[in-house]
Amino acid sequence: MPPTSAYVVVFAVALATTAAVTPLCRAVAQRLSIMAPVTDRAVHSRPVAYLGGVAMLVGFLVAFGVAWTMTGFAPVFETASVPLGVALGAVVLCGVGTLDDVRDVSAPAKTAGVVLAGSVMYALGVSLLYFRVPVFDTLFVLGPDLAPLISVLWVLGMANAVNLIDGLDGLAAGII
Question: Counting C-beta atoms within 10 Å of the first and last residue's C-beta, which end of the chain has fewer, N or C?
Answer without folding.
Answer: N
